[in-house]
Amino acid sequence: DLLLEDGRKDAAVGQCVEIARLLTEQGDSTGAEEALAQFERAIAADPKFLTGHLNRAELLIEERGEFERAIEQCDQLLSGSENTPRPDRATEAEVYYLKSKALFYLDDLQGALFLVRRGLQTSGDVSVYRAFEGQIEFELGHFAEARRHLDHAVALDPESAHAVYHLGLVLERLGRDDD
Asked: Which long-range contacts (C-beta less than 8 Å, at least 24 apart) are formed by 150-159?
């Protein structure tokens, strides 16, 4: 607050982000709550601070389970209003992915699939997005499609635990666990 009073917006935002980073490393719900508050302070200090918006959306999804609020946050970022930052293509794809995750947790699998594919179209092949596409196809019961996407995700990043785990589930369902 003192930094803001002195007109040092960048320093205030940086301090909020550093505090939030340390709090999220704690790995408990109290740390996540405080980190969310720090990101909200950073956004209040600089509404165009894109990383703050993205981290806030992710915390709303992963830590708070506030999927509707996360969707609103993503929609606000995608709207291109004068009060929010204009994302570049890679960041736009990340926003589609975050919104896709929120829809997934709300059991809107078709909506989640549409948005993760929009993210892939926007950014090109990103292993995490491709693996999530495969996970959604798996949840929809489209096992052959899921395998195709997950094979591709593993080819992009063989160390991706998310992709390898879901590929194993798909292979088990397909009766080909010997692969």
From this structure: 152/125, 153/127, 153/128, 156/125, 156/126, 156/127, 156/130, 157/127, 157/128
